């Protein structure tokens, strides 16, 4: 197999996927059978600067280059050959946010990520004007908030994009987005029958221009947004300048075809084979979100639900929660530190597995304990900022098993609120929910609790082990497969996921009842979290060489 893999690598019969996630930039190389051949990654962290979450663009390229270099080392170690090129390439990244450039290609304001919730006024006004939910993190909300705030840079904006769109632009010179990522900038007109020609909603484009004019800014939003491409379509080739950015050693040469860049939600759908109606997936890491492919329009607008699309352009209801497993990760880190203090040398993955397994024996309703995992604001529960919080009633028994179950439940609680709207209010039905991400790596724990939270069977499997980086590599392979007449769903079913083994978990009635009881206390005590936001400051401050004061949060993906 190593020989075959080596021949595929040297022959360029591969696809490379790069995904810029919240805590890690990852590169995955796949072969003709779509199996991963090599992996490379680089950790990075967001910074809280001037009350906004951001990453520097220098860190983008440092991380990308380190990931590609690590992948090349992995190719050499595993297969005994050099990485001399790839057959196709794709880029994915965190969706949404705000990257604004002037006509010279200069960034006008630091990258504002999906995590920011300073856009409340804009999101509320646009939601009312458009008649659809416009989340805080969407690019159009960031732009309109900048207009409302009178920010000087707005008049010089020439081009808006997402992080994936930015990287793709630098690699190819093409200002284009995959339709799934584009749907997080401005709503897509999904009424158009031909998915390949679907674009931004024309009525909303025109209304935004009017709102901007009312605020004293003349612009044409349609001219600022990237072009849109659906999965399977070509989206440019690696340029000489792009190749130097990606790999300064020159291993990757110009001319490699690229697929449309996509957001991490879209690549998660691909990585879990969840692009057909009545399928869905939950991704849990720094944030946690559910994507459910719809078979009909929703009856009305809900602030808990975002309407986006699959990479093929089909409508999706998204429940996006800013806060996922980072606070849980912090508690596990505390226990690992305690073990080291005792002189116990223990691997971090073993600590996770031990503590997660303990949660299975905890009280089904968490025994009077509550936790809020809010490191940042959480729009679904109406909080502009977050304060991690653990509390319990005086008569609750403080045991390790129930403590861990409480924090695992807390990681899923806000998602449950949004899924209740989708499942109970809208009556959306699911045939399959797939779970992936760091939270689900310990077998049979978070999967079981998610099944209880949404009262739906949940599947996990090794297919999504390499996550969105593998998903965008698959999309790159699809774009160069010569299968333009095949649907993405058909390609995944018949070519990529044939013979895939899954582990399925049915909801346990005792767990379901326990999670329901936990949620009643969770919702009732939300004013306590609100009080913590109102009365507890932002925490650790540091000053850099320029005199800028910032709060820094370092996050690690759960093992």
UniProtKB/TrEMBL annotation:
UniProt xrefs under Pfam families: FGGY_C, FGGY_N
Domain of life: Bacteria
Biased composition (Polar residues): 540-552
Residue segments, region Disordered: 539-559
Ranges where the Carbohydrate kinase FGGY C-terminal domain occurs: 281-479
GO biological process, alphabetically ordered: D-xylose metabolic process
Keywords on record: Carbohydrate metabolism, Kinase, Transferase, Xylose metabolism
GO molecular function term, any single one: kinase activity
Span of domain Carbohydrate kinase FGGY N-terminal: 15-243
Family: Belongs to the FGGY kinase family.
The protein, known as: Sugar (Pentulose or hexulose) kinase
């Amino acid at each position: 197999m190593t020989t075959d893999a080596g021949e595929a690598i040297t022959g360029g019969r591969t696809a490379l996927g790069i995904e810029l996630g919240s805590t890690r930039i990852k590169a995955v190389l796949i072969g003709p059978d779509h199996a991963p051949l090599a992996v490379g990654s680089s950790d990075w962290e967001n910074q809280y600067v001037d009350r906004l979450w951001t990453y520097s663009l220098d860190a983008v390229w440092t991380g990308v280059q380190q990931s590609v270099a690590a992948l090349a080392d992995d190719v050499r170690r595993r297969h005994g050959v050099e990485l001399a090129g790839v057959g196709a390439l794709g880029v994915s990244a965190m969706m949404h946010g705000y990257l604004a450039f002037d006509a010279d290609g200069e960034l006008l304001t630091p990258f504002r990520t999906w995590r920011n919730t300073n856009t409340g006024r804009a999101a509320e006004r646009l939601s009312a004007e458009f008649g659809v939910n416009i989340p805080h993190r969407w690019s159009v909300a960031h732009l309109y908030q900048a207009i409302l705030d009178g920010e000087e840079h707005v008049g010089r904006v020439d081009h808006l994009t997402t992080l994936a769109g930015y990287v793709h632009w630098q690699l190819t010179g093409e200002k284009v987005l995959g339709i799934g990522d584009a749907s997080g900038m401005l709503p897509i007109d999904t009424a158009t029958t031909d998915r390949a020609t679907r674009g931004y909603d024309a009525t909303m484009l025109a209304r935004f221009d009017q709102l901007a004019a009312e605020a004293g800014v003349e612009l044409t939003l349609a001219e600022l947004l990237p072009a849109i491409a659906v999965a399977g379509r070509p989206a440019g080739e690696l340029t000489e300048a792009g190749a130097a950015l990606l790999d300064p050693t020159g291993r990757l040469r110009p001319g490699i075809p690229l697929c449309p860049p996509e957001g991490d939600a879209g690549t998660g759908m691909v990585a879990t084979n969840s692009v057909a109606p009545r399928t869905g997936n939950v991704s849990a890491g720094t944030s946690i979100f559910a994507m459910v492919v719809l078979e009909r329009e929703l009856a009305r607008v809900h602030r808990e639900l975002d309407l986006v699309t699959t990479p093929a352009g089909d409508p999706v209801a998204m429940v996006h929660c800013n806060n996922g497993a980072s606070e849980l990760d912090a508690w596990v880190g505390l226990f690992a530190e305690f073990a080291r203090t005792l002189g116990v040398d223990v691997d971090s993955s073993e600590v996770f597995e031990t503590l997660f397994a303990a949660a299975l024996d905890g009280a089904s309703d968490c025994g009077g304990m509550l936790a809020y995992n809010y490191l940042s604001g959480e729009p679904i529960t109406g909080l502009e900022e977050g304060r991690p919080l653990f509390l319990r009633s005086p008569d609750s028994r403080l045991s390790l098993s129930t403590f861990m179950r409480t924090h695992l439940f807390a990681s899923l609680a806000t998602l449950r609120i949004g899924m209740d709207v989708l499942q109970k209010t809208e009556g959306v039905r699911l045939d399959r929910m797939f779970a992936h991400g760091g939270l689900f790596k310990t077998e049979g724990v978070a999967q079981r609790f998610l099944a209880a939270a949404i009262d739906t069977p949940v599947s996990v499997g090794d297919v999504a082990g390499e996550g969105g980086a593998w998903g965008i590599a698959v999309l790159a392979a699809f774009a160069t497969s010569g299968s333009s007449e095949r649907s993405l769903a058909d390609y995944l079913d018949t070519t990529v996921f044939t013979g895939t083994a899954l582990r399925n978990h049915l909801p346990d009635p005792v767990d379901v009842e326990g999670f329901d009881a936990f949620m009643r206390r969770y919702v009732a005590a939300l004013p306590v979290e609100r009080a913590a936001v109102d009365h507890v400051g932002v925490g650790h401050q540091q000053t850099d060489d320029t005199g800028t004061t910032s709060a820094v949060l370092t996050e690690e993906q759960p093992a």
